[in-house]
Structures are given as structure tokens and as C-alpha cells.
Specification:
Blueprint: H1 2-9, H2 12-20, H3 22-27, H4 33-53, H5 55-58, E1 72-76, H6 81-92, E2 96-101, H7 108-117, E3 124-128, H8 134-143, E4 148-151, H9 158-163, H10 165-185, E5 190-196, H11 219-235, E6 241-247, E7 249-251, H12 273-281, E8 288-291, E9 303-304, E10 306-308, H13 309-322, E11 328-333, E12 339-340, H14 341-352, E13 358-361, H15 376-382, H16 391-404
Parallel strand pairs: 1-2, 1-4, 2-3, 4-5, 5-6, 6-11, 7-10, 8-13
Antiparallel strand pairs: 9-12
Helix pairs in contact: 2-4, 6-13, 8-10, 10-11, 12-14, 14-16
Bound molecules: nicotinamide-adenine-dinucleotide and 2-acetamido-2-deoxy-beta-D-glucopyranose (3 copies).
């Protein structure tokens, strides 16, 4: 793989020399003159053909070389909800981005939107690959020169993780190992990891700080915690700059309406609360199911810390800028304020203008009663604080995108 990528990047002259096969011509020196001329002509024609057919000989792909002043970020899961928003922000900030995604959960439509916004060569490329395929991942790292990796790709539904735990350990823990191994082999210096508040489980004391003990209670949280452990152990003896961001509940979408959240319809039943609200508001589902009203919280429904995706991607850019070689930064990314499911539903009703029917059901396995962050550390160390903290406004922005695209990225 290394040899291949080197020869690809060799200047044209050196390449045609080796292709010219001088040894072979030497052997034929005593043969007849016409044969020799014919052979040389054929070889020259072959050279020209090879050079013409492969643009990388004449101009190496901008993604395959380090360019001073340009930071090339590999965004895994960049076709997904958060990864696509992060890519948009990175491109706006003049980063170079390669998205790797196998579209098992993401949307090609999101990639197309990004490509149409940044069509210039060398800004964005999309590579369709499964991260579980270590050989393909190795090839991607050998052919591209990344400065940093933002690793979003994962399966990310608590309920689903209790039903299909192996899928979670595979696509979260094992795939993170694959990505790290390639980063180590190809000396990629900076790693930003998407972790989650689900790694804390259900701590007794709120709010959650970064030193709150991690005791996850479902396979999703456990798989993410295991991935964190692998990253931490690796970083102890490495010069890699690592940032682990533990997100709380992500909502909202691009304020300019270019991107949105469009999960697979078959995931609806495992879905997140905002998607469930929108489906109910659009009449796709009969109403909104609230699972659990007997939790030990003021109104009996679960309490969560809802973080707007615009704030979240801002935290990623700040983490990338402040990452230091040989150091690990671990940060909660939340607003610091908990809101109940009932509060969320009433904000959703206001934002959509629909009087959504609400059904109250028993608890769902794997849910925690109350989870909210203490975001002091990230404010002090990365100068980040949540700006988009009006729940109703965040939901309104997301609703606008949902309403204008009844089939998600499938149609507009
Ligand atoms: N959404 C949240 O509230 C939330 C909260 C905490 C943490 N996170 C984390 O943020 C990250 C992104 O979440 P999201 O909400 O954008 O999810 P998403 O499902 O929208 O995006 C995940 C993307 O990863 C891709 N992917 C999954 N497995 C893959 C594989 N094996 N190979 C290649 N691509 C693969 C999917 O196709 C999808 O595009 C995840 O790591 C998730 O655990 C999300
Ligand atoms: C994603 O990768 C998995 C594992 O290799 C594979 O089973 C699945 O078919 C892929 N999904 C798509 C849409 O290609
Ligand atoms: C996750 O891993 C499984 C194999 O365990 C694979 O079949 C699947 O396609 C992968 N991706 C997703 C999104 O489930
Ligand atoms: C912190 O961020 C604010 C606003 O985003 C900015 O005005 C300020 O200069 C930053 N402070 C430091 C020390 O970088």
C-alpha cells in the first residue's frame, strides 16, 4: 500500500523512466533496427496512455498530500446527522474533509448537499467503506494524508443496543480499534472521539462532571466506554493528541436549513425524542409515546440535557484547535440544564404548532431517570459554552427542515 501511494505521487518523468523498461530494450540491442523502433514507439504510446488515463500521475490528488496551512480531517460517519453538520462547519472554516461512511445509517443526500456547497477540488471527498473492513480502512489511510480524525461513525440507539448488543460492540468498540490502528500506522496526529453521557450510567449525584464514575448500564454505553478505555490506554504511550467529547442529548439542525436529521424509518421505534415528536406532528405516527412516568423526578418523566448540534460541532472545532500532542482532553458537552420529557413535548407542540397526542407508557429498558452535565471544564479549558439553549427555537429550526422535506433527503 505504501509503495503504491509513493509511486503514484512520483513526478511524471521518474515514472515514465521506470515504465520505459530500459533493461528490456538493452537485451534487444543486437536485434533488428525496425523491431527496436517499433518497440520504442509502442512503449512510448503505452506511457502516454497510462499518463492520460490516470490523472493522479499528472496532478496528485490534493487529498493524498500534506499541504502546508491546510488541515485535512477524516470524518467517519460524515453522512450521518452529527457528522454531516460537523463537515459543513469544517468546510466553512477552510478545512479539507474526507468523509468515510457506508450509508448503513447515513444519507447520501447529506453528502450531496455538502458537495454542492463546496464543489471546488480538494475540499470534500466521499469514500464509501465499512469501518469494520480493516483492509479497506488501511488502504484509505495509505492513499490519503490525514492530519486529524473525527470519529462519529457508530450505531447509537440505547434501546436497539439492548436488543442487538453484538452489533454495538462491533460497530462501536471494534471499529474504533480499527481506526486507531490505522492512525497509529500512518502517524495521524489528532483524534477527536464522539463519546456519550451514556458511559456514566445513572450516577447518584447530579450534575455529571468528567470525574463522575463511569458505570454504564446498557450495551451502547458500555461499548462507548470500552472504546474510550482503548483510546486512553493507547494514548499513554503515544504522541497522539486526543480529545474525547461526551455528548448529552443532541437536537436541532443547521439554522440555514441545509442539513437535518433523517434517520432510517425502520429505526423509528428506537428513535430519539425529537424525531418521535416530528413524526407525530406530521401524522406519520398516531401520537407520541412517552415511556416511563414513574421515575424519581419532579414530573415523573426522564430528565435530559439537550444540546443543539450547532453548539456541538463548535465544541469539535475548538477541541481540534486546542488538541495537544501526547495529551488527552475529556469533556462533557451539554448545556448544564436538565429538562423533562414533558417539558420537551410541550416545547415541541409550541414549535410545530401541532397539538400532538401523547400516550404514556411503561418504562423502556436501559433508560436512566436523570442525566445532565456540568459543563464547567469545557468552558474553562476550551472557552466553549452552549449558545443555542432555547429548546423551542432548536426544535423550530429542526421542524422547518423536517416539514420542507417529508421524505428526509429522499426528496425536497
Ligand atoms: N445523537 C445523539 O444524541 C448522540 C449522543 C451522544 C453521542 N452520539 C454519538 O455521535 C455519533 C454520531 O451520531 P449520530 O446521531 O450522528 O448518528 P447517525 O446514525 O446519524 O450517524 C452515524 C453514521 O455512521 C455511519 N456508520 C455506522 N456504522 C458504520 C460503519 N461500520 N462503517 C461506516 N459507517 C458507519 C452511518 O452510516 C451514519 O452515517 C455516534 O458516535 C454517537 O454514538 C450521538
Ligand atoms: C455496511 O457494512 C456492513 C458490514 O460490512 C454490511 O453488512 C452492510 O451491508 C453495509 N451497508 C451498506 C448499506 O452497504
Ligand atoms: C454493524 O455490524 C454488523 C455486524 O455485527 C453489520 O452487519 C452491520 O451492517 C454494521 N452496521 C450497522 C449500522 O449495523
Ligand atoms: C472566548 O470566546 C469568546 C466568544 O466566543 C471570545 O470573545 C473570547 O475572546 C474567547 N476568549 C479566549 C481567551 O479565547
Amino acid at each position: 500500500m505504501l509503495n503504491f501511494s509513493r509511486s503514484r505521487n512520483q513526478p511524471r518523468a521518474a515514472r515514465s523512466m521506470s515504465l520505459g523498461g530500459m533493461d528490456y530494450v538493452d537485451q534487444k540491442r543486437k536485434g533488428n533496427f525496425i523491431g527496436k523502433v517499433f518497440l520504442l514507439a509502442a512503449l512510448t504510446a503505452l506511457c502516454i496512455l497510462v499518463i492520460k488515463r490516470s490523472p493522479s500521475f499528472t496532478t496528485p490528488s490534493p487529498f493524498s498530500v500534506h499541504e502546508p496551512g491546510v488541515t485535512h480531517v477524516l470524518v467517519t460517519g460524515g453522512a450521518g446527522y452529527i457528522g454531516s453538520h460537523a463537515t459543513l462547519r469544517l468546510l466553512k472554516e477552510s478545512y479539507r474533509v474526507t468523509i468515510v461512511d457506508n450509508l448503513s445509517r447515513g444519507n447520501l443526500g447529506a453528502v450531496k448537499v455538502l458537495q454542492s456547497l463546496f464543489p471546488e477540488p480538494g475540499r470534500l471527498q466521499f469514500i464509501y467503506t465499512d469501518l469494520g473492513d480493516a483492509k479497506s480502512v488501511d488502504k484509505i489511510f495509505s492513499e490519503n494524508k490525514f492530519d486529524a480524525v473525527m470519529h462519529f461513525a457508530a450505531v447509537a440507539y440505547v434501546g436497539e443496543s439492548t436488543l442487538y448488543p453484538l452489533k454495538y460492540y462491533h460497530n462501536i468498540t471494534s471499529n474504533t480499534l480499527v481506526v486507531l490502528e490505522s492512525m497509529a500506522k500512518y502517524n495521524v496526529k489528532t483524534f477527536i472521539y464522539s463519546s456519550t453521557c451514556a458511559t456514566y450510567g445513572e450516577p447518584e449525584k447530579m450534575p455529571i462532571t468528567e470525574v463522575t464514575e463511569q458505570k454504564p448500564i446498557n450495551p451502547y454505553g458500555k461499548a462507548k466506554k470500552m472504546a474510550e478505555d482503548i483510546i486512553l490506554d493507547f494514548s499513554k504511550n503515544s504522541k497522539m493528541a486526543v480529545m474525547i467529547l461526551r455528548y448529552f442529548n443532541v437536537i436541532g439542525s443547521d439554522p440555514e436549513g441545509r442539513l437535518g436529521e433523517a434517520p432510517r424509518p425502520e429505526l423509528r421505534e428506537h428513535g430519539r425524542i425529537s424525531g418521535a415528536c416530528f413524526d407525530a406532528a406530521r401524522g406519520i405516527t398516531q401520537g407520541l409515546k412517552v415511556t416511563g412516568t414513574d421515575y424519581n423526578t419532579p414530573d415523573g418523566t426522564c430528565i435530559r440535557d439537550y444540546i443543539d448540534v450547532t453548539d456541538l460541532v463548535d465544541a469539535h472545532v475548538k477541541a481540534l484547535e486546542k488538541a495537544k500532542p501526547g495529551k488527552v482532553g475529556i469533556y462533557n458537552v451539554g448545556t448544564g440544564k436538565g429538562r423533562s420529557v414533558k417539558e420537551f413535548v410541550s416545547a415541541c407542540k409550541k414549535a410545530t404548532g401541532v397539538d400532538i397526542k401523547v400516550d404514556f407508557l411503561p418504562r423502556r429498558p436501559g433508560d436512566y431517570a436523570e442525566v445532565y452535565s456540568d459543563p464547567t471544564k469545557i468552558r474553562q479549558e476550551l472557552n466553549w459554552t452552549a449558545q443555542y439553549t432555547d429548546l423551542e427555537k432548536s426544535i423550530q429550526v429542526a421542524w422547518k427542515w423536517q416539514k420542507s422535506r417529508p421524505n428526509g433527503y429522499g426528496s425536497s
